[in-house]
Specification:
The protein is α/β, with parallel strands linked by helices. Strands 3-4-2-5-1-6-7-8 form an eight-stranded mixed β-sheet, with helices on both faces. The chain is globular, with a radius of gyration of 18 Å. The two termini are 13 Å apart.
Length: 269
């Protein structure tokens, strides 16, 4: 069965689109899944810029206006996944339109990832209503946590399951909120902790996902662990020194335990 995963946040700059792109890349290339990535940020689309498509011809906007069928808006990326770009929409969109279109196309894919708007509006509502499950991207600071709480609350009100939180831009300094603080405040488990790596900017400049630009970086390996958990598989870190460190360490990080619990839950369901 196909799965539709919405990637959301209610604050710009936390890495939501970067996360969506890298998860799609990993699922397609490291786990051989048939993946569709959709830009559901209708009023300020930017997924196509991450993918190096500056002026897409057919977009989700054209689909909503009944100019084309949704299949005509699908592009094949050279990183082995398909994607649908958006173009600027100046009018209000019926939140149900995306859900109806995803129903039409979902049987052709194993995983569909929806990149939402970073605002609590009809765009995000359309992603929530179109998704089977959600991932919430946040950063470990108080201002972002307050917006994350809003996203979690709305998702719970709509009855959309939240797979977990992804903490991005983590520097491990004393000013950051801890994993335990964030889980306690939101009531949602953290599935991944992404370090604040400078090379991410280089990857974005080269229009290449970090998981392809530096496949063995800490961030790339963490994306692969997250992706594996989402499809109830395991990812084995290929790095020699990382495996040696794990062998001699008895400590298992909380987010790693969360991933294993989530993986087992999916298997039972």
């Amino acid at each position: 069965m196909s799965r539709v995963i919405g990637v959301i946040s209610i604050k710009g700059g936390v890495g939501k689109t970067t996360t969506a792109v890298n998860l799609a890349t990993v699922l397609a290339n490291d786990f051989n899944k048939k993946v569709l990535l959709v830009d559901a940020n209708y009023y300020a689309p930017n997924l196509n810029f991450h993918l190096g498509i500056l002026d897409p011809i057919n977009t989700l906007n054209d689909v909503f206006q009944d100019k084309i069928k949704i299949f005509d808006a699908v592009y094949k990326h050279n990183l082995n996944f398909h994607f649908i770009a958006s173009s600027l929409i100046s009018r209000q969109i019926d939140p149900m339109k995306l859900r109806n279109q995803i129903k039409t196309i979902r049987s052709f894919y194993e995983v569909i990832i929806l990149d939402s708007s970073p605002s609590l509006n009809d765009e995000m509502l359309s992603v929530m209503l179109s998704s089977d499950e959600l991932l919430v991207v946040t950063t470990p600071d108080y201002s972002t946590l307050s917006t994350t709480l809003k996203a979690v609350r709305v998702a719970k009100q709509k009855g959309i399951p939240i797979n977990g939180l992804i903490l991005n831009k983590v520097r491990k300094n004393k000013c950051e909120l801890s994993l335990n603080d964030i889980e306690k405040a939101t009531g949602i488990h953290v599935l991944g902790i992404l370090p604040d790596e400078e090379k991410t900017i280089e990857a974005q400049h080269s229009l290449t996902p970090i998981t392809q630009y530096l496949p063995n970086s800490e961030m790339s390996i963490e994306y692969k662990h997250i992706a594996a958990a989402l499809i109830h598989e395991k990812y084995n870190d290929p790095r020699f020194f990382s495996n040696i460190k794990s062998f001699f360490s008895r400590k298992i990080d909380k987010h790693e335990i969360n991933r294993e619990v989530f993986r087992q839950k999916i298997k039972r369901d």
